[in-house]
Amino acid sequence: ALCSAWSVDFFLPQNACPLHENPVDSLEKIFEMELAGQRLAKASVLKALSKDVREYEESLGKALTIKDYVLGFPYALQQAYEKYGVEEFPGSGEKKSATKPLFMHFSGPTGVGKTLSAGLIAKAMFSNQAQDGSRCGFFTVIMTNYKNKARGVAAAQQEINGTVSKQLSYCPRSLIVFDEIQNVEEDTLDAVLDLFYGKGALNAGQAVVIMLSDLGSTKLSSSMDRDQATKVVKEEAHNRFERLNKKVLLDNIVPFLPLGREDLEFVAESELTRLGKSMSKEFKGLWSGKLTWSNQVINGLAESCFVKPTCFSDGGRGMETLVNDEIQSMVEEVMRNECGLTTEISFNNVDLRMENGVIKCQIDTVFGENEF
User: Fold this and answer.
1) What are the counts of helices (DSSP H) followed by strands (DSSP E) for the chain?
2) Lower CB density within 10 Å: C or N end of the chain?
């Protein structure tokens, strides 16, 4: 999201999008709490981001040119820089050379955490969160919007170039995500890669760029190591693309493997936690209890998703659909009955439990009839 608030300290461009002090440590903890499985992906991202953060912090101690200062200003001043072409800020010393962004290619099946991981990286990097949950410095380009070849590659490149340049002018230290890159024409994908690695590439040296795709999704398995997984992704890329000029895309693969049964248990618990919070908001002022569940319920949901091809192939999204379709309506019915019987606030819990292999929902009274 573009930054709406500006620091009066104009000569600190990184202040346009306030950063967390220890993003790598934060991300490691966030990954552990919020991302199911994906040991290979977690390790790859943490290693790459650790190196990038170190280089970024080192760059802040170097002499900056006027271009670096302007990159932290609003878009109008960036245009002024381009118009007048001033290269150095007087007395700045050595000119800071343009560098390339940290580039990562997240590839794997749907619903395994690629988009979620990008959002978690933003959560670890940027401290300024808007009311809608978006974060200053986190910017996503949905490549499906540029799928229509009739628009022309040049027009798509110009539009993407404009939006990305504007984002970088506000927040040089941006996280830019290109989602669903497999859905666009190869010419359009090449044009986007050229924005960062072609002739006249953007100065995105402080940025992190992530591309998301489903390359290799049908052949990846949860038992693969990193070399096996990247080999599968590269092989599919060679089969899908006519031109092999995508070195940066294929040299920076972060494989996301299909979820295993234990991963589905993690997702099931996360989805029930989400449902509990949703019920608290929906019945606010009427209910102050909790949604509770047994380990057998978690195991049952994971097993149910694991054996259903449509659920398992959709990963985390499949589990989300399963909980929404089979659990949420049952919980809502019990809640309506509980909260509709009296005008007083209910403190009773709503409990999910397994009975004869079937998940049931019922009220679990906090106090007995003769208590208090």
Assistant:
1) 14, 8
2) C
pLDDT at 4 (0 to 100): 42
3-class DSSP assignment, residue 322: helix
What are residue 135's phi and psi, to 5 degrees? Answer: -120, 135
Convert the pLDDT of each residue in 230-250 to its tens digit.
Answer: 999 999 988 888 876 788 888
**CA–CA–CA angle 258, 262, 265 (5° rounding):** 105
Contact 217, 31 (CB under 8 A): no
Decide: helix, strand or coil at residue 112.
coil
Instruction: Give the angle 346-350-355 at the CA atoms, nearest 5°.
Output: 150
HSE at residue 322, side-chain half, CA atoms within 13 A, is 31
291-293 and 175-179 beta bridge pairing: unpaired
Residue 73 contacts residue 89 (beta carbons within 8 Å): no
Any idea of the CA torsion for 346, 286, 273, 353, to the nearest 10 degrees?
A: 40
Contact (CB, 8 A) for 157 and 192 = yes
Q: Which of 9-13, 163-167, 290-294 is most confident? A: 290-294
Q: pLDDT over 90 for what percent of the chain? A: 42
Residue pair 366/289 in contact by the 8 Å Cβ criterion: yes
- Note whether 348 and 289 are within 8 A (CB): yes
Maximum distance among all alpha carbons in the chain?
A: 82
Report which of 271, 261, 275 is spatially closest to residue 320, judged by C-alpha positions. Answer: 271
Q: Which of 198-202, 233-237, 280-284, 292-296 has the highest mean pLDDT?
A: 292-296
Distance CA 135, CA 123 (A): 7
First to last CA, the chain: 52
Digit-coded pLDDT (tens) for 144-196: 888 866 667 788 888 898 999 988 888 888 999 999 998 888 888 998 998 89
CB count, 10 Å around CB of 346?
A: 19
Which residues pair with residue 210 across a beta bridge? 104, 177
CA distance 305 to 300: 9
Return the ∠ at Cα 77 (arms to 74 and 83), rounded to 5°.
145
DSSP-assigned states of every residue in 178-195 = EE-GGGS-HHHHHHHHHH
- How many residues are listed for the chain in this entry? 372
